[in-house]
Amino acid sequence: MDEHAASWHGEGKGVVLLSGGLDSTLVAKMAVQELGRKNVTALTLYYGQKHEIELEAASDVAEFLGIEHIIRELPPIFGGTTSTLVQGGPKNPEGSYASIAESKGVSPTYVPFRNGNLLSAATAVALGLEASWLYYGAHAEDARNWAYPDCTPEFNGAMANAIYVGSYGKVRLITPLQNLEKWEIAQKSFEYGSPMHLTYSCYNGREQHCGTCPTCVARIQAFAKAGMTDPVRYEIPIDWGKLIEDFKY
Amino acid sequence: MDEHAASWHGEGKGVVLLSGGLDSTLVAKMAVQELGRKNVTALTLYYGQKHEIELEAASDVAEFLGIEHIIRELPPIFGGTTSTLVQGGPKNPEGSYASIAESKGVSPTYVPFRNGNLLSAATAVALGLEASWLYYGAHAEDARNWAYPDCTPEFNGAMANAIYVGSYGKVRLITPLQNLEKWEIAQKSFEYGSPMHLTYSCYNGREQHCGTCPTCVARIQAFAKAGMTDPVRYEIPIDWGKLIEDFKY
Do the Cβ atoms of A75 and B121 come within 8 Å? Predict the structure, then answer.
């Protein structure tokens, strides 16, 4: 039922782009299941994110899964941007992604061609490690309405081609979540036994999830729609029973 | 007769990936002709190349063309590689590209997924500058026999798609040399009045071109085949008359 049958790419080594969020953590767990933990390397690329807590979450996840973890820094090319996600940028928006999307145009959290840079750097690392597979957790909800154009299947496909051709056919891009909604990712995280409790998604970078920023709202809704409670802690009280009921019909 | 008629993309701003070599210098000159020098920014990305003389050549070219010049550093992700082109790597090969290609497989001068990283970083910069066009000098001779797979039209096309989709349709990749041989680039450099005399191609990084490394050999042959002499200085004597005669038939 998974998008990639383990049988055809269950050999060789893999690199997983791991942010420490729910999506990439699931992908790391999938990679471990397909290739074995000794053949998987998690790669976290720091590009001036506002908080270190994401890096800690990524390290915790890698340790839990028993896989090698590489942390590398990208150049300060993103520094002068208008994205709210990088240091020196404006304040993060509140409310749901839907309300942000209504404002049209470029998402305030869009980091210029971020995923092109992440995937290109990861390909170089994969080549250095002689890894055949590059796992990457782009999903359908980020791609919807072109909120993040560098999460769309069209972008993924183009990069998959560029990576395959440009690496002498040595590295192939694997995007097992690209047609999944966030609630399906929550569901699959449960099925795969992904260490959800160690993940971190909040834009605000405090120890507990704020529960009100766009990623927190999306995360809470995803778990509720999947009929589950989220194992991470929130700063605000969350009535999971009511939320799950709301999504029932 | 040019691959891109100036009329359709003669508006807006452009970023040119400029190494200071013959190819990217011609592309910079083309961009200036199409967009006007005030709308063109040269971008030189340093990624641990062995010598600073390339950066100087790029600066000289940008100054000659009267365009803004940005120099940025890429992360040390390429550092641990086996490429002869980066600091700490092995010694450069001698002889022609053809003799190197005979050894098959990965070129000793291949830097892992270099052009994917250069183009991704350049797209981020282009978005920051609100540039619509990203000019890039990949050519047919580097692509031949898959010597550099990240110079092939297939790679360029995939990256063009990824860049266009991933930038909200704001940036498009322009590769005016992708079907040209090196000798045609020499010829076009003359036609366009490109500042060939300021360019630098040699792998060895000394003040004059060595005349024996693969790029020098390719450069000399290109000029001879185009029926021209190269305006840069070489450490060894070159009998241009004889070389030009050799290529005549």
Answer: yes
